[in-house]
Give the backbone structure.
Amino acid sequence: DALEVDFDAEAASTAPVADNITVTNNAGIADTVKVTGLAVGDVVKVYKKGVATVLATSAAVATGKSEVVVSVAQLGAAAGDLEVTVTSTGKLESSKTEKAFDAEGKTGTLVEANVTATNNVGKADTIAFTGLTAGTVVKVYDKVPTDATKKQLGTATVAAGVTTATVSIAQLGSATGSVFVTAAATGQSESDALEVSFGAEAVSTAPTAGNITVTNNAVIADTVKVTGLAVGDVVKVYKKGVATVLATSAAVATGKSEVVISVAQLGAAAGDLEVTVTSTGKLESTKVEVSYEAESKTATLDASNITVLNNVGTADTVKVTGLSVGTVIKVYTKALSGTQIGTATVLTGKTEVSFNVANLGFSAGKVYISAAELGKLESDLVEKDYAAE
């Protein structure tokens, strides 16, 4: 007859202890479920609470180990509950152990003292951050991030081994303003925004009117000399009330504190200029008005300094003394609308000229002579008699 033999149920694995389960709900990177107190060969499965489908499965616990870390793509931003099982070698899957997890962590708002906005001139503006952890991502916005019209101006990630980061922005603008900055530490969501103010771009100091000398020359280029400058300063000259730049200097050289700017011609009459300075890393200064005089007229020659020789058989000559270098002497036949019959220029190191003129003729007569000093208008004519041959 038959003998009835009883058998036990298949062995079930021991369920994990809730305290041995750690769920980390990260932002931006994979979430993790860590289970400790395991045996070699154990396999862990993770479920969303109330869902039969396995969310993630670990590899078997390796020899010499007693824990596993299971990676989960994303549990979501909100808090929730998981269910965790263990399947030991030769045993059925354990019952499910429920484990709650927190919402994704939010990075704390940045500290105002740790953020510096620098509004540069002529180069990128910067937002510098300190007191951060490696991997933290900082972002700079033009408006509160919750504003749908916001624009991200720049971002940076804190490198390994440092606690700082700097965001470069092409230009914040010349005026004062503010930006909004956030931080997102590794595995945490973006912080609330901190508003950071920045100053206006620095403006150069305007030149002092007493340091500006305008020389309104005749015939040759006019000049504007500006003293009391710093190395790298650039001077611009404008006609009063005209936006277009009339002339620009080279930058002040090392060891110098002044520039002389050449201007083609300001004109014969008196007038007014406006002068600015642009220092390195600063905006152009306000305009300083300075007046200039009309072109100067050379003083009429002293007739006693003039000798006219009406020679026989050789060229007639005119000699003028008491002159300055560069002075141009001209000789005319008449006081008004006369023909120019001779000219000469005083050479370097000399104070007089002696030169030939067109033949004066046999009889006595008169010539009319003018002078034009360097940078001055031609003088009035002086009458000079000459004897017959």
Q: What stands out?
A: The two ends are 178 Å apart (CA to CA). The mean pLDDT is 96. The CA atoms of residues 44 and 86 lie 5 Å apart. The chain has four domains: 18-101, 112-198, 209-292, 303-386.
